Amino acid sequence: MREAEAAARRAEARRREEIRRREEARRREEARQREETRRREEARRRAAQLEEEMKARDRERRRERERMERKAWDDYERRWKSLSADSDIRKLSFASIPWPVTRPPRSPSELDLVSVKLFLFSRSHSLEKSAKQRLRDAMLRFHPDRFEGRWMNKVHDSERAAVKEGIGRVARALNDAMAELQY
């Protein structure tokens, strides 16, 4: 009988040990799942935070670009008014002409359709004027014959070729923009 009791105790001990191992395995699995869930949640939070930071940077870049476009437009208009009002202009250079682009060009090659359209059609400035009116005003300022008659004699001889090329490039860009606007 003792042997049977000892065998029963051993069997009970094995059963308890098996239950203890299963319970331990279950706790480890639950802990692993909790850790995995925590990591996923942390990754989601980080992704959401990064996305929000990117959106904030984009908004800031957009505000800065709009500020630059408004400033460029204000400078452009101010420089044209000053140029038109100053009857005592000595000599103009390529750089002193208020070109219809956001950043002052260093050469005529920087005066292209995309730059001119981005500048004239920006929604950051002159909202009181339609895009067509802004385009028309620029066409009057940069019409090659009108520019030649009014301003070319005041351009430094050494810069005339660059200014003439710049005027031609702007006039073509404006004509292309007008054609696109009409369709």
TrEMBL record:
<dbReference type="GO" id="GO:0043124">
    <property type="term" value="P:negative regulation of canonical NF-kappaB signal transduction"/>
</dbReference>
<keyword id="KW-0040">ANK repeat</keyword>
<keyword id="KW-0539">Nucleus</keyword>
<dbReference type="InterPro" id="IPR038753">
    <property type="entry name" value="NFKBIL1"/>
</dbReference>
<keyword id="KW-0677">Repeat</keyword>
<keyword id="KW-0597">Phosphoprotein</keyword>
<protein>
    <recommendedName>
        <fullName>J domain-containing protein</fullName>
    </recommendedName>
</protein>
<feature type="region of interest" description="Disordered">
    <location>
        <begin position="1"/>
        <end position="71"/>
    </location>
</feature>
<dbReference type="GO" id="GO:0005634">
    <property type="term" value="C:nucleus"/>
</dbReference>
